[in-house]
Amino acid sequence: MGKQVVFQRCINPDCAAEYDVSEVIFKCPKCGDLLDAQYNWDKIDVPKKLKDFGKRWANRNLPLDLSGVWRFRELLNFCDDKYKVTIAEGQTIMQSNDEVGKFAGMKAGRLFLQYEGLNPSGSFKDNGMTAAFSHAKMVGAKSCACASTGNTSASVALYAHSCGMKCTVFIGSGRIAFGKLSQAMDYGAQTIQINGDFDDCMKQVQDVCMKLGLYLLNSLNPFRLEGQKTIMLRIIEGLGWEVPDWIVVPGGNLGNSSAFGKAFYELKQLGLIKRIPRLAIINATGADTLADMVNNKKLVWNNGNVNNKTIADYYADLTARKFSPHTCASAIEISRPVNLKKCLRAIDVCNGVVRAVSDEAICDAKAVIGKYGLGCEPASAASVAGLKLLRDEGIIGTDERVACVLTGHALKDPNVTVNYHKEKQGPFSNPPIEAPNDFDQIIKLIK
Ligand code: F0G
Questions:
Q1: How far does residue 379's CA lie from ligand 1's centre (Å)?
Q2: Tens digits of residue pLDDT in 146-188
Q3: Considering the domain boundaries, does residue 81 fall inside one?
Q4: What range defines the domain where residue 326 resides?
Q5: Residue 300 alpha carbon to ligand 1 centre in Å
Q6: Distance, CA 221 to ligand 1 centroid (Å)?
């Protein structure tokens, strides 16, 4: 594939098999490992400076320049413009937030919140779907599918109807927040509720896609991750094209962290950044496979020679114990993350760390983000809870510059929010006040 602008390559260095960009495979047919989109950069006219991408804001009437993903199109140069599907994703903003920073132990002006809830379907997934659906269109797919803890299904359903494709989404029964379920149904997806958890759905959807030839939209899809790289570009843009010291992101199926590591590796390779920020990936304690494997089982990338036995033994133990993950952050309630190896690579590239935070810490952080920021769903708040933990441990310095990615909108999961406040579950609870239907008494109650 040496001569092609773009191709797919297996991440296993012992295999490193290459495939044409038009192949719809999602896992290396030779060894079963994950695939990357790879570019021959000398064949792509990449702008010389990151600042040059910013100029496209002036052309906001051109859909590809308006998109916060395709604005950076040379860095995800895998398909012709005529196939690109956009619904103005990536119009997200990064905000400095001193109150949330204070909660997490940061000095003023050092914490930034990258709010991905502003995307069309209300989560960061749209960054990936615009890219994956463009690939799907390029290869002529007519029907697609995904497994989901909720946001992927909402985003898939939205993009599928935007480009006239049929879609089927697999969700674990009782494992999805209502905001997300309502989106999948409302956007017209065929919704299959499996009596199982996300990991069960993920396995089923891969087999179903294989059998029926459906286009798979989970983050196994390397083109989806190409779109998610741009979240990092917008963070750099938000800092006047400077790189922060840390990126903090929740970890579930580990697509984001994998994409972020790839983005920084490529930007450095292209000479567009001088230094790579550190990456902190935050699990929930009830779904902490990555934290456990990295911190306790010492699993590392090791130049691609990952210890497969450690992973196989770990999963065999989960099966033997009939383990199913549980956290109020249902978006990251995953115990067999499909991008585990790519995430290990990202940790290697970014000198990353992994931590797990409790549901209580997540809900407190969420309430603080709600009170002082734009609000977010529980999984997103794991980033701020993780930052607080890493500050307490002294791993992140109080005056380092930190960007926390808030992955989903506050309205995705109203139940967790309402319960936290109404049931006074934490120090930041703000319950409604019961009042009689009486003017004088109401007046007395208002402070
Ligand atoms: N935050 C939110 C709001 C999510 O929906 C997800 C994943 C994550 C974080 C974790 O990101 O998988 O890239 O590590 N949600 C998927 C879904 C699994 O099906 O919607 P990741």
A1: 8
A2: 999 999 999 999 999 999 999 999 999 988 999 999 999 999 9
A3: no
A4: 93-121+224-422
A5: 22
A6: 14
Indicate whether 86 belongs to any domain.
no
Q: Is there a single domain that holds both residue 411 and residue 328? A: yes
Ligand 1 atom at shortest distance from the alpha carbon of 152: 20
Whose C-alpha lies nearest to ligand 1, atom 12? 253
Pairing of strands 18-20, 6-10: antiparallel
Task: Give the residue among 146, 151, 121 at the shortest CA–CA distance from 132.
Answer: 146
* Per-residue model confidence as pLDDT tens digits over 372-418: 999 999 999 999 999 999 999 999 999 999 999 999 999 999 999 99
270-298 pLDDT, tens digit each:
999 999 999 999 999 999 999 999 999 99
CA angle 201, 202, 204 (to 5 degrees): 65
Q: For residue 237, tell me if it sits in a domain.
A: yes
Candidate from 126, 146, 148, 149 with most ligand 1 atoms within 8 A of CB, to mutate: 149
**Residue nearest atom 4 of ligand 1, based on CA coordinates:** 331
Identify the H or E element spanning 96: strand 93-96
Q: Who lines ligand 1 at CB under 6 A?
A: 123, 148-152, 219, 250-256, 331-332, 377, 379-380, 407-408
Neighbours of 48 (CB within 10 A): 10
Q: Is residue 19 within 8 Å of 35, Cβ to Cβ?
A: yes
Phi, psi dihedrals of residue 128, rounded to the nearest 5°:
-80, -40
Examine residue 441 and state whether it is found in any structural domain, yes or no. no
Residues 300 and 391 in one domain: yes
